[in-house]
Amino acid sequence: MKVMNMVQAINDALKLKLKDDPNVLTFGEDVGVEGGVFRVTQGLQKEFGERRVFDTPLAESGIVGAAVGMCVAGLRPIVEIQFSGFVYPAFNQIVSHVSRMRNRTRGKYNIPMVIRMPYGGNIRALEHHSESMEALFGHVPGLKVVIPSTPYDAKGLLISAIESNDPVIYMEPKRIYRAIKQEVPEEKFSIPIGKGKILQEGNDVTVVTYGAMVREVQRALPAAKKDGIGVELIDLRSIYPIDKDIIRESVRKTGRLLVVTEDHATYGVGAELMAIANEEAFLNLEAPPTRLSGFDVIPPLPKGEHLYFQRPERIYYELQKIARY
Amino acid sequence: MKVMNMVQAINDALKLKLKDDPNVLTFGEDVGVEGGVFRVTQGLQKEFGERRVFDTPLAESGIVGAAVGMCVAGLRPIVEIQFSGFVYPAFNQIVSHVSRMRNRTRGKYNIPMVIRMPYGGNIRALEHHSESMEALFGHVPGLKVVIPSTPYDAKGLLISAIESNDPVIYMEPKRIYRAIKQEVPEEKFSIPIGKGKILQEGNDVTVVTYGAMVREVQRALPAAKKDGIGVELIDLRSIYPIDKDIIRESVRKTGRLLVVTEDHATYGVGAELMAIANEEAFLNLEAPPTRLSGFDVIPPLPKGEHLYFQRPERIYYELQKIARY
Amino acid sequence: MSKKKTKSLFQEYHPLDYQQFRIMDDLGKIVNQDWFPDLTDAKIIEAYKFMHYARTVDLMAVSYQRQGRMFTYPPNLGQEAIGTAAGFVMRPEDWLIPAFRELSAWLLKGATLNDIFLYWGGSEEGSKFSGAKNFLPSSVPIASQLIHAVGIGYAMQYNKQKGVAFAFVGDGGTSQGDFHEALNLAGVWNTPVVFIIQNNQFAISVPVAKQTASKSLAVKSVAYGITGIQVDGNDYLAMHRAITEAAEHARTSNGPVLIEAVTFRSGAHTTSDDPSLYRTTEEEDKWKLKDPILRLGKYLIEKNLWQEGQDEELVKKYKKEIDAAFFEYEKSPAYEINDVFQHLYHDTPVDLKQQQASMERFLNWERTQS
Amino acid sequence: MSKKKTKSLFQEYHPLDYQQFRIMDDLGKIVNQDWFPDLTDAKIIEAYKFMHYARTVDLMAVSYQRQGRMFTYPPNLGQEAIGTAAGFVMRPEDWLIPAFRELSAWLLKGATLNDIFLYWGGSEEGSKFSGAKNFLPSSVPIASQLIHAVGIGYAMQYNKQKGVAFAFVGDGGTSQGDFHEALNLAGVWNTPVVFIIQNNQFAISVPVAKQTASKSLAVKSVAYGITGIQVDGNDYLAMHRAITEAAEHARTSNGPVLIEAVTFRSGAHTTSDDPSLYRTTEEEDKWKLKDPILRLGKYLIEKNLWQEGQDEELVKKYKKEIDAAFFEYEKSPAYEINDVFQHLYHDTPVDLKQQQASMERFLNWERTQS
Ligand SMILES: Cc1ncc(C[n+]2csc(CCOP(=O)(O)OP(=O)(O)O)c2C)c(N)n1
Ligand SMILES: Cc1ncc(C[n+]2csc(CCOP(=O)(O)OP(=O)(O)O)c2C)c(N)n1
Ligand SMILES: [Mg+2]
Ligand SMILES: [Mg+2]
After folding, report:
1. What ipTM did this prediction achieve?
2. Is the Cβ of D226 closer than 8 Å to some Cβ of chain C?
3. Could you name the CATH architecture of C9-334?
4. What is the pLDDT of residues D126-164, one digit of tens each?
5. Which residue of A142, A263, B235, C81 is surrounded by the most CB atoms within 10 Å?
6. Residue B30: domain span
């Protein structure tokens, strides 16, 4: 098997599906000639030509809206938004059409579109380059939202997303684009959308997280282990649909839930998972379900990052508090 | 005191502040000559002139973005978005500038803007005219979000919103625009943003709701009373900041929480309030905090409304379930 | 029949010359024989009748709404020539991407009366157009649909199909960012799209002079390096010719075309609007004289192709047909719980199934209550 | 000195004539004496020196970034004439609404070196410009700032102030919907805004030919009924004249002006970009000859207002100043927890205070751990 980082794994999935299906095409700002500002689409234009892999004008609404038109006409576009912070000009197209066209036409037209976007922070970037706004998409009916945490998952989830007949928001934790290397099969394989994964079993506290935070939680685990805290670590992988089964089963076992996210706390992913713990496992709860989420403020510029983004120390601090509750 | 419906109360608050402060102005599509499609701004252009009350081109991003510029230049614009379903073209301006300009400039520029918009459903309208997406705004740091449920509150909250030096999303439950008449003082008064209100005291179940759902819950109360269920009814009024005190105190007393909202359940307001109940009153909980929210689907067109929107019967049904838990 | 021209229509009526293209004057007299469309008398009569038909559907829709048998409805009165011309020019392989006020084009593209009543009667079933291909439903968020047309155009080129996408928008819609992004993309990608602005002078209460300072809407094409033309939208013959030329232009890979069709919304914005708040009866009366059906009728009568009294008879026949269709429509099956939950996703998440089940439990309980 | 003209500059260089306005040729020779700006030799020398200064700041910023002492930075190399001209034309009552690549204008509007380093060094403090009025910070979401300029223009008119808003955008930015909405609003409201497009040929890797099919960017003004002009953006004298005329036009309530300044980004898009992926060294070399400093230098030397060797000396002096400022900047106080929480709201919600307190509790605990 080939060892890949996440950028390579995504590139590999794109290449595979472009080969596989002549209806697949991919475009966005700087996606063609340059291969994307993160080089995720590197080499694809050369291999598949300018009709299938191309640069667009600087117009996110145009990019997503054109993809809607392509979908109704039978294509399967994958579009790249350069950074998730620049998706808002396309928000109207996403909320009003991408998510609704199928329902509006009672299934006459599917929208088999993937909207890829790097997201998340702690990468010393300019304003608007550090946000984690997955809950906004999760709240919009008609979308599916996935976030991989490893190169392997990135490939498998992207293949599922491209093959899905429903629109998928595919958010890429850019902080770990090149941080993790892993063996990834070169052939096609897929990971179902809507299923989480238990990364470590444990009996004391359920920790649910996803994206770049998986690694941060893993870094906090040795300290927890030293304290004798048995952590069951779940990678949620899909922000919508949510794998309620995996949460229910784990919280019924541990009685304790800590959600670790990079997104803003209020009306964020943590709140929803806490609500699910209540709905699905109330009688098993031994401590209040808890969230360690981002603060409800704009992520600071690089000089303030250490005061905002999750660190393993903080995760451990919250873990032991809930374990001791 | 004068008896007003909500439309009149909002109009009254606008008039009062336009009189009060020469920096206040208001604009939007059809706001001037026509007085708005719901006639909320009726008569204002006549009284205050075309420079202060005016029609704009059909361009929501332009409307909100221009208001950002006015704010930094010292004005206090109140803009109308014709229906909340048409706010998405302005989403980039709201998320990237309205909510952030102050933080970005470390307080050099405030954004004392109010964005008014009718929202909510069950009014037999076309697509995009029935949504309740308040959680989207609640999740964006830097905004305040309020929703009145009576003419009195509408006036008091709007005056606070206009006087606030922070941007306020002011959502108007159009379903009850003209449904409720009430005595409202003609002079200036204000209701603080971030404070809920207890509408009925009770010891058995806390029901938190807001906007048009307040009336629906009230319609379910007689049946609950007949069953001997003592409902404490809270009108949340502010979607952000959330009045955690009022929720904590009530849930500590009742041990039971039902959130009734029109918005979509997943990543919605209900989840957040359930999370708060866990964080603030876990040891007092006698039943799982519960939400009766909208389904995670597009609100149906008129012929399907009765199968989607909250009805008193359903509220009562949920109430008795939680009371009996 | 038109003569062979040395200049194309779009050169002769270049938007920078600010000359409106028309064939008839307001009294139906031919003032521009050179560009007369390539239409037999029979075809013109067919179009005339069809405009009557579309108008009758429209007027009856308004009256059904008034009777409380339908919901909000946007009258097309006075704008029938535009959609009718587009509808007759469109081929089966072409796409129709509507705004919401081009009923005549919908009908010609294959929407049934039942579709129309279902949609404005408040059911998503009316947006399915089961009998019609290449047809998007109404787009409520103004101007957003124009970008879809560009994507459809791209897809047709990608698949080496020779179709054209016809996309509609109002004068108000030209102020939206999406109008700009669509025309710019279409220009730079050279996609086969015909954009038709129905400039009916108002966006609800806002007159076009408050939408833009540009001297015309057609001239906006210059900003995108694409072809543009301003046409008298109440002149069926001019509209037919302009759309034919535009479709040909787009079909032969010469790029998109922007048509500004100058017209007037003679009715209210929707059935809940009151035009007396923002416009004068003088203005309305002035435009009544330019009514597209009146004008084409005068032409036909003058040419002895039509008699004064024939209209009434025709409309009476249409009314009957339409009423019959409306009665049929009123027997449509009721909305079901499945209709709420089963169309949003191709692969419906478990969660939605559970929400549906919870609603069903409640409905069952409710039934036991009374 | 310029002669009294019968036609205005904007009439003479109407964008529909597709004629670029310039004063000098590429070798610094005056080819258009008629429109020579109203500038003394001393003023021209001042501008020349200032362009050197701005370039030195820019180059040193790039090198600080390479040394790991600053974060991502967007080089201005080759575009200095545009911001310098705008900066010298601007009055204190005017507003500057930047994109992010007009450092020279920032400095002239009153940004200190400390502000510049703070911002690109990763602190919000650098967007405050405490010493400068009427100055918005960099707008990262492309083109969104243009609409703010319209609102500012409206506010100035509302308050009967005679200021002008200068708003910047790149060639890529012209594709955004907000570009359209801004120019359209400015046109219909007749607000005093001068929009300056720095057409530096690329939006990151995408050449302007892939942004739009329009024949120029200046011609887009026609779509909004506003004044427009294309200017040689590497010709300081032309830029100064064009911006002066535009400001005058806007200030006297004649409405907004769109200036397309044709230039070239000689450096990378940002310090993390690699231009060799998308353009040739031939193209870069061709543009090097048109460098704005080189050209104005040739003019000055030719007129005996400047000597060959003077540049080096000047730059050396600037470098010293800038290095000193950078050392000062590096002593800035550390980011504090208050900086994270205390600026978002005027009235900070209790909730945020609690979040801050929870973070402080953790930090205290952490301190006790090691
Ligand atoms: C983005 C958006 N904003 C506002 C509305 C509300 N609205 C519906 S129709 C309309 C006016 C449309 O005017 P125009 O484009 O001229 O079309 P017309 O109604 O005249 O056919 C408005 C403002 C909307 N549907 N979408
Ligand atoms: C809305 C938005 N989309 C994408 C980006 C990412 N981005 C930053 S700069 C840039 C290119 C800008 O090109 P141009 O407008 O020509 O300005 P230049 O960089 O050449 O000065 C892009 C795509 C952004 N900042 N904002
Ligand atoms: Mg109109
Ligand atoms: Mg550029």
Report:
1. 0.98
2. yes
3. 3-Layer(aba) Sandwich (3.40)
4. 999 999 999 999 999 999 999 999 999 999 999 999 999
5. C81
6. 2-184
